[in-house]
Structures are given as C-alpha cells and as structure tokens.
Design a protein that fits this description.
FAD/NAD(P)-binding domain, 2 domains, seven-stranded mixed β-sheet, alpha/beta, elongated, 19 strands, binds NADP nicotinamide-adenine-dinucleotide phosphate
C-alpha cells in the first residue's frame, strides 16, 4: 500500500512550500503535481517580485528550484493528475487512475486558472499577453497597453499599469463597470485612461509577439484594429475544485473554504475566532485533516509569495493535526 503521512495535491508555490516544511519535519510526503506541474508560474517569464532573487528569476526555474528543495527532504513527486478522492474517513485516499494512495492528512493546493477570452490570445501569454499586471506591469514602461474586463481586477490592473505605461485602454463588454465605485473613480479620474465601452476583443495578431488586436463595438458591429504592446486579460478566475464538489465546502464562486477565509468574511464557521487562533487549524477545510492553501483558497491576492506563505501555514497546521491525532 502506498501510504504517506501527507499527500499534497497540486504542484505550485503553495504545494511545494508545504511539502518543503513537511519533509523537513521528517514526515513522509507525496506531491501529486499534476500532468503540467509548477502552477501558473510556468507560464510566466521573469518573476521580479519573489523575495531573494535580486536579478529576478524565470518562473519555471523558480518552480524547479522549489521541487528540488522539497526532494532534498525526501518528498516524493509524481507528475500525475488525481482522478478521484475519498477524504471523509480518518485515512484519506487519493487515486491516480487505478492506483490508490493513502495519507493521514491532505493538503489541497490545486490553484486557479485565469479565464481567457478564447480568441487565440493564450498563444501570446508571456509575449505581450498577461493575466497579472501586478507581476508584469513593470515590463511595459512607456508602452501602449489594453486591459479587458470591468471588475475590480481590471481596475487594479489598470492602476498597476498607470505607473509604467504611457496609455491604458480598458475594453469592456457593457456600458458600466462591475467594479466597486471607489476603484472605478480612481481609474476614470486618470487622464491616461481611455475606455472602449460595449466592446469586445475579437482578434489578436503579431509575429514573435502580440502587436495588434481587433476590437468590436457590440452596438454598431464595427471592428477596429488597435496597435499595442500589451494586453492584460482580467475577466476572472476559475478555482480548480471540481473534484472536491460535494466533499469539501466551497464558496459561491467555487473557492475552497477554510476556517481562515470564512472568518475573514466575518462568517461564524466551525469554531469561534478565539479557538481558531489558540487551538484551531486556520487552514483546515470543512473536513478534518484536509487543509487548503494557495490560489484555490485565495481569491484576493493570488501572488506566488502569498501562496507560498499559505503553503507554510497549511504544513504547520497539518503537522500539528498529525501530532494531535497520533
Ligand atoms: P469579476 O468581478 O467576476 O469581474 C469580471 C469582469 O470581466 C466583469 O466585468 C465581466 O463583465 C468581465 N468578463 C467576464 N467574462 C468575460 C468575457 N468572456 N469577455 C469579456 N469580459 C468578460 O472578477 P475579478 O475582477 O477578477 O474579481 C474577482 C473577485 O475578487 C471580486 O469579488 C472582486 O471584488 C475581488 N477583487 C477585489 C480587489 C480589490 O478589492 N482590490 C481586486 C481584485 C479582485 P460583466 O461585468 O459584463 O459581467
């Protein structure tokens, strides 16, 4: 039987950080990193804001370093997708195809994916297309950029770009933003911002990198070609939680709920606030022994460093849980 102290599902910054901590605590750990391990960072080029790398580091290199660091402490890593889980018993089971793996605790760090428009822009990610302005705005100094979306993320991306880009044009499919009023006001009061209302991006083109987009005015049907250096897609995220539906409690958008996130939203859930900090497990999900960390939990910050930090928290909680349940 393939039995471990902890199985980590997901191989991004949160998953690998939890594995490093657990491996170093002399626990047996299996990381099921998925068929394409490394999380969203493998689609990023240079990462300049992860502390410790004065000259920046390429996203895939950062992930390979995290994996090597986990393996140094005896962590096993499989590049496999989980097909099924049974988490409700004291001993948890996870299947990869027909093979069953068991553990006394599970860390879910399956991440989230950025929604894309679906017009071929995926091919230009890292070459003019980005889904994270906080990460990439600094590469667009003096450039012409477009943001797609009308929510808080689109406003936040626009604000991040305004520090560097010469021009920021927001393309939004309706005639009003969904974003909070305060964020809208900040964006709309800036003279460098233009908005193309009732419009959608219907085409992308460029040789080695993105150089122009086609924007359709939904009301008139007229299509215009826009030259640009960067296109920031901010139309929402989808957490990877399908396999946990009906097993772990999810919020209304499908994100994994943990004690900490429930309390952040001022919801009384599972334990009192006092108990959570003194005795509880802030990263525990609705099922005992199952912990959540990274973008599958965090709809707000979504940074590699915040995911890694939460991975550390989940590992410490899992370790404490295992000690208490020996
Ligand atoms: P969101 O609030 O769901 O907004 C998504 C936006 O993208 C909407 O304006 C939507 O248009 C548009 N959109 C969706 N699918 C599209 C498509 N296929 N083509 C074109 N446009 C499309 O998502 P979000 O902005 O990522 O925010 C997610 C959550 O995080 C929200 O609760 C938000 O408040 C929070 N957040 C907060 C902050 C902050 O407070 N600083 C920052 C970022 C995010 P419609 O409006 O027409 O539906």
């Amino acid at each position: 039987m393939n039995k471990y102290d902890v199985i980590v599902i997901g191989g991004g910054p949160s998953g690998y950080t939890s594995a490093i901590y657990l491996g170093r605590a002399a626990l047996s750990v299996l990381v099921l990193a998925g068929a394409q391990p490394g999380g969203q960072l493998v689609f990023t080029s240079e990462v300049e804001n992860f502390p410790g790398f004065t000259k920046g580091i390429m996203g895939p290199d950062l992930m390979m370093a995290m994996e090597a660091q986990a393996k140094r402490f005896g962590v096993e890593v499989l590049y496999k997708e989980v097909s099924k889980v049974d988490l409700l018993k004291e001993t948890k089971s996870v299947w990869v195809d027909e093979t069953e793996y068991q553990a006394n605790a599970i860390i879910v760090s399956t991440g989230a994916t950025s929604k894309m428009i679906g017009i071929g822009e995926e091919a230009y990610v890292g070459r003019g297309v980005s889904t994270c302005a906080v990460c990439d705005a600094a590469f667009f100094k003096g450039k012409k950029t477009f943001v797609v979306g009308g929510g808080d993320a689109a406003m936040e991306d626009t604000m991040a770009l305004l520090k560097f880009a010469d021009e920021v044009t927001i393309v939004h499919r309706r005639d009003e933003f969904r974003a909070s009023k305060i964020m809208q006001d900040r964006v709309l009061s800036n003279s460098k911002v233009k908005v193309m209302w009732n419009s959608e991006v219907v085409g992308v083109s460029g040789e080695s990198k993105l150089s122009s987009i086609k924007v359709k005015d939904i009301k008139t049907g007229k299509i215009s070609e826009q030259q640009l250096d960067g296109l920031f897609v901010a139309i929402g995220h989808v957490p990877t939680t399908k396999m946990f539906e009906g097993i772990l409690e999810l919020d209304e958008k499908g994100y994994l709920r943990t004690t900490m996130t429930a309390l952040m939203r001022d919801v009384k859930w599972r334990v009192s606030e006092k108990d959570m900090w003194l005795d509880g497990f802030p990263t525990m999900t609705s099922v005992d022994g199952v912990f959540g960390c990274g973008d599958v939990v965090d709809y707000r910050y979504r940074q590699a460093i915040t995911a890694a930090g939460m991975g550390c928290q989940a590992a410490l909680d899992a370790e404490k849980y295992l000690t208490e349940h020996k």
